[in-house]
Amino acid sequence: MVLNLRVGMNRFRCLLGAILASCAANAPCQIRGTGPLEGFVLDRAGRSAAGVDVILFHGSTRVAAGFEEHVRTDGSGFFSIPRRPIATAGTQWMVAAIGPSGEFEFQNLWGSFGACLLQLPPASQVRVKAVDGTGRPMPGLRVRVGGLATAYMPPELLPRFEHVTNAAGEFTFTGDAKSTTLAEVVDDGLACFESANVPLPAEGQTGSHTLVVQPSSSIKGRLVAVDERVSVAGVAVEAIPVGKGGGWGCLARTQSDGTFSLTNLPPGKYWVALREDSLGVGWNFLDQHDLGRGQTLELADIQVADPGRLVCHVFDKATGAPLSGQELRLTGDGGLGMGGPTDANGEVAFAAQPGMYRANVNRVEKRVTVESGKSATLRFDVARVTPVPSLDSGFGDPQPALMARAVDELGHPIPYAVVNSFDDPEPMLTDAQGRVDLSRYAPGYRIRLSQGPRTSRAQVLPSKPWPGNEITFTLVPGLLGAVSGSVAFAKGKPISRVVVDLMSAEPWGRVEQSALTDGAGGFTFDGLVPGKLYYLAVHAGSGATESRKFVVRAGTTRKLGSIAIR
User: Fold this and answer.
1) Which of 19, 112, 281, 371 could be disulfide-bonded to 274 (CB atoms 3.0-4.6 Å)?
2) Chain segment 317-341, per-residue pLDDT in tens
3) Domain 217-304 of CATH type 3.40.50.1100
4) What pTM was computed for the model?
5) Domain 308-382 CATH superfamily
């Protein structure tokens, strides 16, 4: 199955071609892929990206983040992951595409239905030189580039992000253009601190950077079970910098005997924190520690007891009814213990280490003592607070579904239609049945669905609570617009084979389509959404020339004239 897609073809048509590629000639279309989490990956120019690695992973405020699934796109850029996880309070699932040159694009996984659309970013290179504190080159040094992104990688992908310096102490890597990534020394006992952030230049360019490698510090310790029923293996332990904005220092898990090692740390002050909900040590902070350069700090044994259980019931003080979705915070002597929302029965439960705790719901606080291996119960009668979702953090309470469906003029479902919001740049797709959950968007957002030459009229999302019925988007031809223009030198000579990007300006720039100018310097982009703000970026010479912003009208082609390159 091969797709012949020209540069500049809009990504809606790429998706349509990918779907049709799975259909036999003169036969009804059979939608491929029945897995619960599907999607497409496009390259930087909006073309189907085959053979791209796709991973499913999660971040969390309560448990250590981690990798879950690894698949690859097929010849049409399509991928299918066997299961679609359900977001819970404190956990946000994400899906990421890793390009052949190390480009990394991820997307938060929202709602219960819908497919993903990931577009790989532009790439550039950096030539890195590693030196020691005196400026001498460091040959044979293993360096991993990619920062926190590599923390979620399956083991088989990590070698793609690791480099070994040559005899001159140098290596070259490719990454996301106009971004900053993190370099870390793989070899124990060494690290690059102040120079670890590596800036990448504009697309197609090669920058340079110097890594100053110095001896690193480490913290070692051991968890000891007070009760033989407690397992101390696999507990997440983290070194958190003090006074550095709460950044991530080092995360490790205990071995089968409870030992752990936090390595490659710069000198400074650190909290050591345990994160394991099942033991009742979710975000329990231990003592602060000062680390000198090159120092290895051996901690005293950390005792972990058989946890107790705390069950909290929350009721509406006005009606006596159980309250769901109310956030409870549990704080102990070791710092912030854990938190979470009440369920449909107004209940939330925690495992907790023995000790005194403060439980707080909607500004009502109670104290409770938790004993090892025993249960304690609290009742709260409070005023109801409506949870406010956070679209940025992704760690809010799961939101009720707002179901939508894409159909044609006859009411037939349209699979893998693109969901576009004028207020949010991150696109989604309908699933194989034409369904999508729009609960990630806020009330009042303008939503339009498109596929190829078809699009729907924009609809404004209703106020909450969401209606129980579906919102239907009918996709018809004739509602999209186009733009054309040309590129020339200042004296009027046309420039052929220059890359022109169509950029979405709302709410920030991203590549929508890409084209090469023809022999007369001309270009055309179709499939543009009326009323949406666009601009052009012309890549000629040492940088990019941007056009003025513009909108198009339905069924018409806007002519921009010539863009002069100086």
Assistant:
1) 281
2) 999 999 988 888 888 765 556 778 8
3) no
4) 0.69
5) Immunoglobulins (2.60.40.10)
